[in-house]
Fold this protein.
Amino acid sequence: MNPLFIDHILIMVKDLNKTKKFYSKLFGKPIHIAKDSVAWQFGDTKVFFGLPFKEVENNFFDRNKIGLNHLAWGVRTLDELKQWKRKLDEIGIANSEILIDRYGNREYIWFDDPDGIRQELYFRPEKKE
């Protein structure tokens, strides 16, 4: 018996207003807004960004420590990836340009959110059955 999908992911952030503004430019209006969290939905999965539950000294994101390294948002066509590249440039989000992954398989673009959390837009075509 295995779960069939990821229902939601919660990512802690330092400044909820900056996070809301950043992701709204990318993904449009959130599905949820509260004083301590904001969320968007992608397919069956909700991604929440929230304020930490308690005060922690030296609290910052480091993608090289245990835990989250990055989020990869999937696109189905290379043209769609190119459209995202144009959008990132238009809204002023610094990015890597379109690169080939380290396995030589797929194209992607990376960029960082306001907390330095690495994001990717990753091209993965649908499988033909």
